[in-house]
Design brief:
It is a single chain. With about 80 residues, the protein is of the alpha+beta class. It has one domain: 3-Layer(aba) Sandwich (Rossmann fold). About 15% of the residues lie in helices and about 40% in strands. The protein is built from two helices and three strands. Strands 1-3-2 form a three-stranded antiparallel sheet, with helices on one face.
């Protein structure tokens, strides 16, 4: 997926990502059922190393996305610009 994003995003384009992290496992507030479907901030930083990173954060935030996705969620947020 990362290769496809890098190939299709034009210079001057932005990538904005919010993903559940492994810290979400066991919270019972939504997200993928296994760690291999989750993303860590370090993974995004590595995959988009040539980009200008505008914002990056690991955090727990309140999520309200329906009955199956409600409560505190462990996420990483990432915004970067492709030069």
């Amino acid at each position: 997926m990362y290769e496809q994003i890098r190939k299709t995003l034009k210079s001057g384009g932005w990538i904005l990502v919010e993903c559940y992290t492994k810290a979400q496992l066991g919270r019972g507030t939504g997200g993928p059922p296994s760690a291999d479907l989750m993303v860590e901030l370090s993974e995004l930083e590595s995959e988009f190393a040539g980009y200008e990173i505008n914002y990056r954060a690991d955090l727990v935030r309140t999520i309200h996305e329906g009955s199956g996705h409600s409560g505190d969620g462990a996420v990483c947020q990432f915004i970067a610009y492709k030069p």
